[in-house]
UniProtKB/TrEMBL annotation:
Any one Pfam family match given in the protein's UniProt record, by short name: Nuc_sug_transp
Annotated transmembrane regions: 129-146, 158-182, 194-211, 223-245, 257-275
GO cellular component entries: Golgi membrane
Membrane topology annotation: Multi-pass membrane protein
Cell location: Membrane
UniProt keyword annotation of Transmembrane helix present: yes
Keyword set, alphabetical order: Membrane, Signal, Transmembrane, Transmembrane helix
Signal peptide: 1-17
Database matches in InterPro entries: Nuc_sug_transpt
UniProt name for this protein: CMP-sialic acid transporter 2
NCBIfam families attached to this UniProt entry: nst
Domain of life: Eukaryota
GO MF entry, a single one: pyrimidine nucleotide-sugar transmembrane transporter activity
Length: 304
């Protein structure tokens, strides 16, 4: 089960950057980014409810799968929802400063922030071999995305770097915090937990629409500028969001980081066919280092 979800997450993440870039027309988004994010949260909420309805039909309503809850339980969900909101909005604006491969390099900051926060917040010990594997993972991912025709690692302006650092911290913190919520009550049905997380996601994204795109939505309509690719992108984001929460519940953030890194290498391979991207020696070297890192990480698990 864990393996299937991890593979699904890897596949979905690898197509994410490509779909975001594809959804631009003449270099800009024709649609309102906030409405797209709102629809992603709505779709995740709907899918969680549908899965829940199936559980109720098969098992009946129990203490662990009922939607009714306490203020105490629900009060923790707005925090990750707000963090994800900011991170998701930044994800679109960072493309003003970086291209898709550059974005993937900067995303490697996530790897380190997740590892450190994982250690600090969840008090989980990673073995020394796993920390070494983590640093190798970062190095391998960065090497894989180097531009062979230039000496500069990244031509990213200062704003791009700042956005990337903020995104890495938000993403790491939101991920680790969500995992803590999911695992606090292991017997609680994952779809109930998802439902509450996404309800707050919808509420925050609705506020973002009001603040940022209210005029555009009022004048041109909610779905202005949407295309088939936009719809695919929304579907992709929703499914990968559900896959992430399953990984959080049944595996952990470290598994998520690794599947995202492997996804990044897949993105580059797909980009060869779609955008004529050239695979360089650096890419192959980076891929080798990432593979070694994945092996070391699983081999270096601390004894329980």
């Amino acid at each position: 089960n864990r393996t299937i979800v991890t593979f699904a997450l890897t596949f979905l993440t690898s197509s994410q950057a490509i779909l975001i870039v594809w959804s631009k027309r003449a270099g800009k988004y024709e649609y309102s980014v906030t409405t797209a994010n709102f629809l992603v949260e709505t779709l995740k909420c709907f899918l969680s409810l549908a899965a829940l309805a199936r559980t109720w039909k098969n098992e009946g309503v129990t203490e662990d799968n009922r939607l009714s809850t306490t203020i105490n339980e629900v009060s923790v969900y707005p925090i990750p929802a707000a963090l994800y909101l900011v991170k998701n909005l930044l994800q679109y604006y960072i493309f003003a400063y970086v291209d898709a491969p550059g974005y993937q390099i900067l995303k490697n900051l996530n790897i380190i922030s997740t590892g450190v926060l994982y250690r600090m917040i969840l008090k989980r010990k990673l073995s020394e071999i796993q920390w070494a594997a983590f640093i190798l993972l970062c190095a391998g991912c960065t090497t894989a995305q180097l531009n062979p025709s230039s000496d500069h690692v990244l031509q990213t302006p200062f704003q791009g770097w700042m956005m990337a650092i903020v995104m890495a911290l938000l993403s790491g913190f939101a991920g680790v915090y969500t995992e803590a919520i999911m695992k606090k009550r292991p017997s609680r049905n994952i779809n109930v937990q998802n439902f509450w997380l996404y309800v707050f996601g919808m509420a925050f994204n609705a506020v973002a629409i009001l603040i940022q795109d209210f005029d555009a939505v009022m004048n041109k309509g909610f779905f202005h500028g949407y295309s088939f690719v936009t719809v695919l992108m929304i579907l992709n984001h929703a499914l990968s969001g559900l896959a992430v929460s399953m990984v959080m519940k049944y595996a952990d953030n470290i598994v998520k980081v690794y599947s995202t890194s492997v996804a990044m290498l897949l993105t580059a391979v797909v980009a060869v066919f779609l955008f004529g991207f050239h695979l360089s020696l650096a890419f192959f070297l980076g891929t080798t280092v990432v593979s070694v890192s994945v092996y070391l990480h699983s081999a270096g698990k601390p004894p329980r």
